[in-house]
Each structure stands twice: as structure tokens, then as C-alpha cells.
């Protein structure tokens, strides 16, 4: 490889390698190269300086001293290329510094020096070389009377010499500088892409973690809604069964049948919910239908469903989780089952009244989006469960209103009957949180709080959208996050 080629390769990689050479050199190899070039330039200048001093009648040490001063300037070509070119122009009349000028022009063109400065110094070099060559040729022609070249010979050779000495190093330097800047820009772009990919990988990990947590939250909320209500009714019926087992065997038999029905319904709904999450057999090798078999088996199936959902939630795009959530809700309960839900609470001994406002034939849709109907159903279900837990013996009223662009529901209960024994049902304190999450995820409004009469009121207004609105609501739910409504 030539000296200029090696210099170009070293300069192209200088920005990527930390400075390990002395002074302004990025590498020791670059310093060695410049020292060798400086020695060659010094040797050339000394020889040409001695010859020049003899031609003009000066002492030879003067020419040698001039060569010793001009030649080593090449050492600073990377730091001050303009100085090197100016020195080469200055010593041109002495017929020395050819290597100094060639390497200096190359370095100047390859550096970040403004192009106007490069063009000006290159033009000065061409002019100096042209004049020096012209005078030398005229002197040689005049010294030999026998040789009479054509008139165009001296000017043409002078111009040719000026261009030959100047044009190749300048053009090569411009090429190497352009290539160096291209390599630097490509390297910067590659570094930027690498940083961007790193950031995207970090964001993908965060999304995956967020999606797993969001799916666990949804599963916990679904299990709470499915299991808590049914189990609460089962506990109430079991207490009634215990109270009348000896006094009224017929009523005890009916209560026992209701407890069995409640358990079967709870398991059916739980299987439906797990069926959305499972694509085959569970990780334990048993199908989802094996959820029966007691509380221990039920807890094991629930744990497997949570683990399976966490593995599926590794997809980095939140929209996939939202779509899965909406798809899972599509098979849930609907508003048509509210009467049955209220009837179950009546069978458990609660005095509850259901009233529905808004006729389906008066321009009000009779079928809402699946997510809307399930949300309203779950609000009523959780509110009635809370009445069983916290206000035993209280009267309750469920109001459902169909409107043009929304559906409203309100569950209000009076104060607890002091004569009624509490059912002793545990409470995790997250039921209201789960209801609020469901309603706000669909763009609705949820309000809950005590009444002046000493009871409690739960109200929710949900936009009555179609299937598209349900998908949008699922996306809103995926971006909302929240606390798991279990317990």
C-alpha cells in the first residue's frame, strides 16, 4: 500500500480508535509514517538545497541549512497542513520541496480544511511550479545555442509540470477525504441504529413484562367476578341449610340443590374463562375440564392458567393482549342473564328488585357489544355480592336503563338488618377497584359510595358501542393497567 493510501485508511479509522500515539498522532503507525516521510523530504531538500546554492553562488552550507529547515515541516502535516503547503510554495524558487508539496497538498485536500483555502493554495502551487519550471527551461535553452525548441515547448512544459505536481495529490486527497467522511457517517449511522435497536429491545422487554402483568390482572379480575359471587351465594345457602336442616328437611333439600347448582355454574364459567387462555392441554398434561375436584384442584387449575397466560403475554405488542381480552369477554355473560342473576340472590334470601327502563323497539339497540354487556353484568354481580358480604338482610334494588348512546345501571341497598346474622364472607377490598377498571376501560363513568339512608349505591354508565367500540375499549383497557381485583 502506498503512503497516501495508508494515510487515508488510518484517517478513516481515527475517530473509532482512541489516541494511542504521541502528540497529535492517533496511532504510532501514523507517527512512524510521518517520520519516514519527513526524513525523505529532508534528504531531498538538503540535496536540492546544496545544488541550488552552487547554482546561485551561495555557500553550500546555506542550501543545506535551508533543506534541514524545510524538510522536517512534513512532521506537522496532520496538525497544520496549511503550514506545510505554504512552506513548499516558499521553497519552490529554490527548486526543492517536491515531496513536501505533493504530500502537503494531499493532506490538505483530505483534511476538513475549507475547499476555498484548498483551491487557493493549490492554485498558488501551480503558479509557483509553473514560474519556476518556465525560468529553468528558459535558462537551459539559453545555455545551449545548438538546441532551439519550438516557441510553445517551454510554456507547455511549464503548465504540464505545474499540473502534474499539483493535480494528482489534490484529486487523490479529495477522494480519500470524501471516503473518510462517508465511512464516518456510515459508522455513526450504524452506531445510531445499534443504540436504537438496544432501546427497542429494552422497550420490548418492558412491553412483555407489562403485558404479562396486564394479563394476570385481567385473569385475577375474571376469577374474582366468576368465583366470588357464586361462592358467596353458596356460603349463604349453606348457612341457611345448616339453620333449617332439622326443622324443615324439604327446604334444606332445596337449599342443598341450590348449592350444587351454584357450584356447577361457578365451575362452568371458570372453564369457559380458562378455555379462552388454553390452546390444548394444560402444562400438567390434563385438560381444562379437569377443573373439578375440590378447592385444591381449582386453585391448581387457576395457577396453571395464570402461568400459561403469562407465557402467552410475551408478545411485545399491547394490541394483541387487548384483542385477546376482548375475545375472552365475547363468551361471557350478557344482559339477558341479569334476571337469572337477581333470582339467585332472591333464592339466597335477599329482597332484591330488578327494574328495566327503555324499550327495545323505541330506537334503542337491544344488543350491545359483548364487552359492554359483560361489564354491566359484572358490575351488578359484584354489587350484589357486596350486599351479601357487608349488608346481610338489607333490601336491594337493581335499575337498568337503555338509552340512545349508553347503558346505565345502578345497584342500591338499604342498611343492614340488625337481626340478620353475618355470613362471615372474607373480602379482599378490591371489588370496587375491579368494577371501576372495567367501566373506565370502556370509556364509561363509575361512581360508588354510601347513601344518606345508611346504605350503599353503585352506579355505572357505559357507552353503547358496537363490535368496533368493543375493540377500541379493549385497547383502552390494555393501556389502562390497574390493580388485580381478586379477593
TrEMBL record:
Domain of life: Bacteria
Catalyzed reactions per annotation: ATP + protein L-histidine = ADP + protein N-phospho-L-histidine
Gene Ontology molecular function: kinase activity
InterPro entries per record: HATPase_C_sf, Sensor_HK_TwoCompSys, Sig_transdc_His_kin_sub3_dim/P
One matching Pfam family: HisKA_3
Transmembrane segments: 82-106, 118-137, 157-178
Keyword list, A-Z: ATP-binding, Kinase, Membrane, Nucleotide-binding, Phosphoprotein, Transferase, Transmembrane, Transmembrane helix, Two-component regulatory system
Domain spans labelled Signal transduction histidine kinase subgroup 3 dimerisation and phosphoacceptor: 215-280
Transmembrane keyword on record: yes
This enzyme's EC code(s): 2.7.13.3
UniProt name for this protein: histidine kinase
Amino acid at each position: 500500500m502506498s503512503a497516501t493510501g495508508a494515510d487515508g485508511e488510518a484517517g478513516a479509522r481515527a475517530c473509532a480508535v482512541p489516541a494511542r500515539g504521541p502528540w497529535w498522532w492517533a496511532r504510532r503507525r501514523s507517527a512512524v509514517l510521518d517520520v519516514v516521510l519527513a526524513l525523505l523530504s529532508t534528504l531531498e531538500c538538503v540535496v536540492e538545497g546544496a545544488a541550488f546554492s552552487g547554482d546561485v553562488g551561495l555557500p553550500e552550507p546555506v542550501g543545506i541549512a535551508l533543506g534541514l529547515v524545510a524538510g522536517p515541516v512534513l512532521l506537522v502535516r496532520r496538525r497544520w497542513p496549511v503550514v506545510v503547503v505554504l512552506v513548499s510554495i516558499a521553497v519552490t524558487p529554490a527548486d526543492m520541496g517536491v515531496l513536501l508539496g505533493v504530500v502537503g497538498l494531499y493532506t490538505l485536500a483530505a483534511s476538513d480544511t475549507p475547499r476555498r483555502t484548498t483551491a487557493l493554495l493549490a492554485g498558488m502551487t501551480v503558479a509557483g511550479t509553473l514560474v519556476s519550471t518556465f525560468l529553468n527551461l528558459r535558462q537551459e535553452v539559453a545555455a545551449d545555442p545548438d538546441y532551439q525548441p519550438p516557441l510553445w515547448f517551454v510554456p507547455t512544459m511549464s503548465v504540464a509540470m505545474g499540473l502534474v505536481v499539483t493535480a494528482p495529490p489534490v484529486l487523490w486527497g479529495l477522494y480519500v477525504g470524501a471516503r473518510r467522511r462517508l465511512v464516518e457517517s456510515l459508522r455513526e449511522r450504524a452506531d445510531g441504529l445499534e443504540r436504537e435497536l438496544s432501546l427497542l429491545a429494552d422497550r420490548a422487554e418492558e412491553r412483555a413484562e407489562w403485558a404479562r402483568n396486564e394479563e394476570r390482572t385481567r385473569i385475577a379480575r375474571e376469577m374474582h367476578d366468576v368465583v366470588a359471587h357464586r361462592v358467596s351465594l353458596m356460603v349463604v345457602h349453606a348457612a341457611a341449610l345448616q339453620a333449617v336442616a332439622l326443622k324443615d328437611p324439604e327446604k334444606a333439600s332445596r337449599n342443598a340443590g341450590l348449592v350444587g347448582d351454584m357450584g356447577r355454574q361457578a365451575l362452568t364459567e371458570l372453564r369457559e374463562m380458562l378455555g379462552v387462555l388454553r390452546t390444548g392441554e394444560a402444562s400438567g398434561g390434563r385438560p381444562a375440564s379437569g377443573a373439578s375436584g375440590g378447592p385444591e384442584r381449582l386453585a391448581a387449575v387457576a395457577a396453571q392458567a395464570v402461568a400459561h397466560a403469562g407465557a402467552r403475554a410475551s408478545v411485545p405488542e399491547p394490541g394483541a393482549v387487548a384483542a385477546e381480552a376482548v375475545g375472552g369477554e365475547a363468551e361471557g355473560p350478557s344482559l339477558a342473564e341479569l334476571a337469572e342473576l337477581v333470582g339467585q340472590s332472591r333464592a339466597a334470601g335477599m329482597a332484591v328488585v330488578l327494574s328495566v327502563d327503555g324499550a327495545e323497539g323505541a330506537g334503542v339497540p337491544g344488543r350491545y357489544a359483548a364487552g359492554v354487556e359483560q361489564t354491566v353484568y359484572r358490575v351488578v354481580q359484584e354489587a350484589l355480592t357486596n350486599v351479601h358480604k357487608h349488608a346481610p338482610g338489607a333490601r336491594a334494588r337493581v335499575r337498568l336503563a337503555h338509552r340512545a348512546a349508553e347503558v346505565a345501571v345502578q345497584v342500591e341497598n338499604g342498611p343492614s338488618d340488625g337481626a340478620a346474622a353475618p355470613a362471615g364472607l372474607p373480602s379482599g377490598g378490591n371489588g370496587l377497584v375491579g368494577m371501576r377498571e372495567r367501566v373506565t376501560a370502556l370509556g364509561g363513568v363509575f361512581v360508588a359510595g354510601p347513601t344518606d339512608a345508611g346504605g350503599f349505591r353503585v352506579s355505572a354508565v357505559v357507552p353503547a358501542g358496537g363490535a368496533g367500540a368493543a375493540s377500541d375499549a379493549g385497547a383502552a383497557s390494555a393501556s389502562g393497567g390497574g390493580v388485580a381485583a381478586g379477593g
